[in-house]
Amino acid sequence: xxFLFPIIIKRTGFALxxxxxxxxxxxxxxxxxxxxxxxxxxGQGATEENLAALRKELKLDLPLATRYASWLxxxxxxxxxxxxxxxxxxxxxxxxxxxxxxxLAFSAAAVSIPxxxxxxxxxxxxxxxxxxxxxxxxxxxxxxxxxxFVAYLLIVIFVVQFELFxxxxxxxxxxxxxxxxxxxxxxxxxxxxxxxxxxxxxxxxAIIGVLSSPYIEMAxxxxxxxxxxxxxxxxxxxxxxxxxVVVMDLAWLVVGVVVVEVVFVxxxxxxxxxxxxxxRDIPMVQAAGLIFACTYIFLNLSADVLSILSNPKLRHPK
Length: 318
What we know:
Number of strands: 0
Number of domains: 1
Oligomer: single chain
Helix content: over 70%
Order of helices and strands: HHHHHHHHHHHHHHH
CATH topology: MetI-like fold
Shape: globular
Distance between the termini: 12 Å
Structural class: mainly alpha
């Protein structure tokens, strides 16, 4: 396992460089927004004295590089600043919102990951059969539709037609577990339908790829049943690509919930990000964007490490 440490260090270094580049893009992107930030916050009726005072308070009168360096310095000390819309600390507002986003993302993952692996195994077991073609066509049709379209379609079916679930996913601290499940069903189902096809087809492709190996042919010649070949021989050797795509899709679930949160008015970090952009709340947008970037990069790094650990050839290099 000594070989793993240098790989992790190297990948971590690349991850930090990527995060640094993303921080520059976030900062520059907000600077490129049209209009005057101080004017957008105070309104058209603000006086020049008030505008100048706010620009000085927000450090908008300083050079761009100085402000970026100051922002990085504050981040290094764990200081995210205060919201421009209500003056509250950004960290306090983001904490429970990000927790709600993780609840939604991991709920969708808890449904989609086992379902995708099972369906992928079934498609590999009955390759090119009508069942394989039906499952592949159905899931590909779902992934071809935008998230907002899938969400609104589910609302029409399960809210308007059958009135089974609420159209607005509002979470409260005093919610009972079953009530929370009822609220999360439609957002979770939307995310599941979007990522299911990718994970299922990657599982199917990995299993089929292993089934063409010589030791699988030997097992067939010995009369080993096909189900046993897949579960005891093919699946363990196909874990590396399966784990990689599962973790990558988990990263997408955490970062890609913005549209779903907006449609269902879900109180997550994505909804907060959209609201903050409309209010020109720069500290909130910077913090939310950086948290999404950190999460995505961390899960990508985890996917690389898990792929190495699950691959016997990489675990025991010659």
